[in-house]
């Protein structure tokens, strides 16, 4: 029995994912399903560069802005919702197109996710309060007594993952690593394949800087001010979205807007380069790129969990991703 297809469009911030996914959706009757861990938050349309309403009207867009920034979307919560949206797309005769740069989400979809029991709210509250009271270094010491590996691996400033490790071992008596070793099977049988856009780093840097300037012009400062007005826990994922910490510091009077913008424009880490045997795709864009990849992926290169990496030069026109 042939498996239904799922196309994954991945890549770095400002790398052109949204535009590529939109082209694919229009070319192949697709539905775009968000796999960006920050674009799930309703209050961060500008700073997470969510697709504009005009693009959302062209093809179905799913899982964008579905959580409040005062909530935390985990990989497990996203996976359940994404699985339902994929099945819904298939039922409607559409190609599900997963679009985003959050590797953990994509890995969970294609490889499965360990089924860690839900942590009670009181334990989550204890973890956050302890971290805030004693600080990151001391908290790592507390965690080391329970989960030495996690404490050694995580930096003291990573409040979210440190408290998560503490919550898991405190509630279940088992470390994060032991739970992760019990990863379940992928949540659905599908024929996964993907396109990873990897623009030249100098172009990516320029695109990130130009896009953040557009965000400022579109009201990013007001967006962060409204977010802070909700009184969110500083450890929530939304508070770490690109530009939020810097603009929040500006709003508190800790730095100028120019300083905040400069810090927020720092380019993302280098991305993996294309294998040489796929360099012939290096200069293709838009529909031609998607059409060629689609037929190669589901023809010559069809196999589970195959990712195609390609260096796609980007121009400096306004980007949709």
Kindly list the characteristics that best describe this protein.
alpha/beta; 321 residues; globular; six-stranded parallel sheet; Histone, subunit A; disordered C terminus; 2 domains; Rossmann fold
CATH architecture of the largest domain: 3-Layer(aba) Sandwich
Which sheet architecture does the biggest sheet show? 6 strands, parallel
Q: Please state the overall shape, judged from the principal axes of the Cα atoms.
A: globular
Q: What's the count of strands?
A: 6
> What average pLDDT do the residues reach?
81
CATH superfamily of the largest domain: P-loop containing nucleotide triphosphate hydrolases
- Number of helices in the DSSP assignment: 14
Q: Using only CA atoms, what is the Rg?
A: 20 Å
Please list the strands of the largest sheet in the order they lie side by side.
Answer: 3-2-4-1-5-6
CATH class wording of the largest domain:
Alpha Beta
